[in-house]
Each structure stands twice: as C-alpha cells, then as structure tokens.
Amino acid sequence: MKSKKKSAVPWQARQGDVFIEAIDASPEGEWKEIDREDGRVVLAHGEVTGHAHVIRDSLVCFLRADSVFERVLDVMNPTALLTHEEHAPCTIAKGKYAVMIQQEYSPAELRNVAD
Predict the structure, then answer these.
(1) For residues 15 and 80, is the Cβ–Cβ distance under 8 A?
(2) How deeply is 115 buried, as exposed, middle or buried, from its count of CB atoms within 10 A (0-12, 13-18, 19+)?
(3) Which helix (H) or strand (E) holds 60?
C-alpha cells in the first residue's frame, strides 16, 4: 500500500485582521523599508480603536514594493513578538513572512476590515 505524500503547509498566524505566512524569499521587485513609528514596526492600524499591530524589535524590517500587493516582514532575531491591545501576542520565528490585511467585500468597494 502506498502512503500519501503530505504537502507542507507554511507557518501561518492571524492576529485580528492581520494574517502572516512564512515565505522562502521576498518576491522579486524593488523592496523598500516602511518607516517605523516611534521605533515600532506597525503592521496595521485599527480604524475603529486606534490600536495597532506592532513589533518592538530593532532587528525586524517591514518591506513593501509598489508592484506587489503583499508586504514582507523580515525577522532577523530568533523570535519577535507581535502585539496588539485587544489580541493575544504572537511569537514569530526568524524568517521572512508575507503580511496581508483581511478585506471584506461589498458591491460598492473592497475595503480592509475595521479592527
């Protein structure tokens, strides 16, 4: 009897409306670091509460490319901690991650989920 080969699913995590997924390398393109806010990497701002999904770690870069929808998080320490005032903290291991913000559909527009 043959055993089925299982496909490996990349590491994934969700914190509210922020979804991150491990990737092997940054997609091709010209990537630029997104500016920090008060020394913090901010993955997303809450539109309703004003809270933010943040990482307070100097060895983390948040990158974007104009030609790509996703943004890339590069964690260079063994781990980094993603925090938010209304969600449990999320530990992220060293590596590269695609960062996506959950969106909702309405017939009039495609918009980010309000957090």
Answers:
(1) no
(2) buried
(3) strand 60-64
- Do 98 and 21 meet the contact criterion of CB atoms below 8 Å apart? yes
Mean per-residue pLDDT, 71-94: 95
Question: Six-digit token pair at 89?
Answer: 């903290």
CB-based contacts of 106: which residues, under 8 Å, 6+ apart? Answer: none
C-alpha angle 29-23-55 in degrees, rounded to nearest 5: 90
Q: What angle do CA 99, 70, 55 make, to 5 degrees?
A: 30
pTM for this entry:
0.80
